[in-house]
Amino acid sequence: MFSCSSCDYTTKTKYNYDRHLKSSKHVKNIKISEILNSTEIKNSNEIKNDENKKCILCGKHFKHYSSYHRHCKYRCDSKYDIDEEDDKGDDKGDDKGEDLTELKHQLELLRQRIEFQDTISNLEKQNVELERDLTVQGLQDKIEYLEQNQKLIVSNSSKLTQQNTVNISNPSIITKQNNLNVHFGEMIDFDTFIENYKTKFSLTYDETKVLLENYHHSGIKSYGNGLFSILKKNCAKQLSELIGEEVDTPILPFVLSDSGLRKHLEKTPAGWIPASTRDKIKKLVVISNDQIYKHHNDCIPMSAYEKELITNSILRKSDYHYAQLAIQKRGALEPQNCLRKV
To answer: What is the rounded distance in angstroms from the CA atom of residue 136 to the CA atom of residue 272?
Structure first.
């Protein structure tokens, strides 16, 4: 057990005891103790220099004048007149009382000064630590910013390399991609279409009712065909608001570029680009099912395999052939947009 008598502190571990010895509270108490000890020694020396007192009537000896005075005035049974001694004692007692009051006042000022110095010291330490933390945090922010930029550079480089590889390995994709960028450049990008489909242009009660009835009457295949028709109508609504006039569209923001269902193109803010996954198309299927449940408190239970069947059905109906027919109808080589009424 480790204890500090100056601070009335006790602990079982030496580690905590060493920490206490370094604390500002312990240092302050030690300083005050030193001052009090020096004052007590001074008073003791003064007391030793006083003459021993003896009661004239009873002969009792007293080491301290205060004890002698108290005996003579209150405790001695004699009627000895000690008025003169009382006057002297009172004067001396008053002087000592004034000295004691002044000493207490000086001790209080000293204590306040020590506390003030400790406060200033702690504030200075906190300022140093804060400046260090701000510097470290600034460096960490810069490092994180650089790391994020590096990841973006690597990611974009990888996508560009992948896109170039696909284009080189299949030159027909380049032609389809260029044609879509020229004739369907005003098509809404796929991400915006999905967000609008989920919020602003969500399915109506009647549309979800048709999808639900198609599923109950004819199964997943009929559901996929119905969903494709509704997606095209929804896309036309979004484009009409975007362009500012009523439009019809032969395609969606994604176009199948391979009859084997292996590759497709998606519309992005930067144009039509090859896509590597079907995740966004599957997301449309999930959103549709959620909206059916919202309107009818009923949903279409579909396995991962059935979801894949619906995705394939929608993608197959989004074949590039329909975009090509629209281009030919408007004059195949004319660089004009085919999203207007056809």
So the answer is: 44
Both tokens assigned to 255 = 């176009």
Q: Return all residues near 171 (Cβ < 8 A) that are at least 6 apart.
A: none
Q: Are 183 and 191 in contact (CB under 8 A)?
A: no
Q: What is the pTM of this model?
A: 0.50
Per-residue model confidence as pLDDT tens digits over 208-227: 999 989 888 888 888 889 99
The dihedral region occupied by 202, where left means phi > 0, alpha psi between -120 and 50, and beta the remainder, is: beta
CA 292 – CA 290 distance, rounded (Å): 5
**Bridge partners, 152 (sequence order):** none
Rounded to whole angstroms, the Cα distance separating 163 from 142 reads 31
Q: Where are the domains of the chain?
A: 95-169, 172-329
In whole angstroms, give the CA distance from residue 14 to residue 20.
10
User: In degrees rounded to 5, what are phi and psi of residue 319?
Assistant: -65, 150
- Please give the Cα distance from 83 to 89 (Å, whole number): 10
Report pLDDT digits (tens) over 126-152: 777 777 766 666 666 666 766 776 676
